[in-house]
Amino acid sequence: MFISVFDVFKIGVGPSSSHTMGPMVAAGRFLELLRAAPFTADGLKASLHGSLAFTGVGHHTDRATILGLAGFTPAEFDADRAEEVIAKIEATGRINPPDLPEMVFAPKDDLKFDYGPNLPGHANGMILMATDKQGDVILQETYYSIGGGFVLTADELEHGADKDEGAPVPYPFKSAAEMLEMAAKSGKTIAEMKKANELTRRSHAEVDRGLGALWQVMDGCIHRGLANEGILPGGLNVRRRAAGIYNALMAERGMNLTAPHTINDWMSTYAMAVNEENAAGGQVVTAPTNGAAGVLPATIRYWLDHVPGATRTRIPEFLLTAAAIGGLVKFNASISGAEAGCQAEVGSASAMAAAGLCAVMGGTTEQIENAAEIALEHHLGMTCDPVKGLVQVPCIERNGLGAIKAVSAASLSLRGDGKHLVPLDACIETMRQTGHDMSEKYKETSLGGLAVNIPNC
Prior knowledge:
By secondary structure, this protein is an alpha+beta fold. It has helices at residues 5-8, 17-36, 51-54, 61-69, 79-92, 107-110, 154-158, 176-186, 190-198, 204-227, 242-252, 262-279, 295-306, 315-332, 337-340, 346-360, 365-377, 395-414, 424-437, 450-453, and strands spanning 11-13, 43-50, 94-95, 103-104, 111-114, 124-131, 137-147, 150-153, 283-285.
């Protein structure tokens, strides 16, 4: 089984990997179909289903779909130009995708939120259509945004593309048990095995350059979040707090009376900085999703800034180890909040961060697996109930607590010898079963939990 580190970690735009990036990617794929079609379309239509409908406005799913059909991509998103394009489309009722003729597309009429039953494949479904001059549909495709910016057509999902093991790799582990066995036989670390697999797809230089770029974007996101202040968009009037907390922490540095637990505030502030940027629609890295994007960068920054002996040269090892764990969770369960609740997002992110931290702090393969299991186990059952469909409450603070749990899990595992009762595989399967049994109200629909129990909902 191979899921690339550059699929687990993707540079994109907030606020949601499944609700913003995914629909934008799906729209881009539909444009490719149109370009290859033997006919010329006159108009475009779209319908959003399931969680994409219920929380689509708060997650900017409608805007992402429109911009995707206009040719925008998450990795090269230009916010200023996007506003200009949206305004022009809304004013004229026409859209001009690259390398295609101008077509009729009036968002108020041609983009529908369908609040009926989910499409059969996944909670995040959307249908894109091209029409002729009479308004008849001449091309149609169903897409599913399955979490973390991954997108599949209905046919791809039906034929198991989400479980496709891909071309052969040297270390094809698809469970934690296989990962441990291969590490023991090869004498390699998880990161070394993961990199060997990556090198079947890319050169050494491409892998190293790509890993460096991922951390550069993550760290840049932290820096922006620690500098920016004000009110987040969306109508909840949530105030950015990361900058204020960070400035207070900097002022307290060196004071003898600072409580030991203040280190938790540092971790939370780093994570909140990322997720405030995500909530504002800024550039982030899926880790493994946008809603959980702050956990892993915050853990790395904690390690770099507060742990003696930390060095940036080992960040690739951290990312490769984390990606290996993220791949196991995605392949065997889910990283989608709409499919399995927030245990699949922040829970997975915490497990990945715990594994990465344990690795760079000298943990054995068994201790790394244990760290991931501890972190995931203590997120089991966590619901996804964003207030007003926005990736703000409880998402921003939740990333801070996910980072704290990751550090605690890594520390606990390093205090042991790697032997423990609950295997990571059992924990991942438990998360999958729990997500399957969870009420739809608690899976990114904003129909339950905090989303209906506070005055702002």
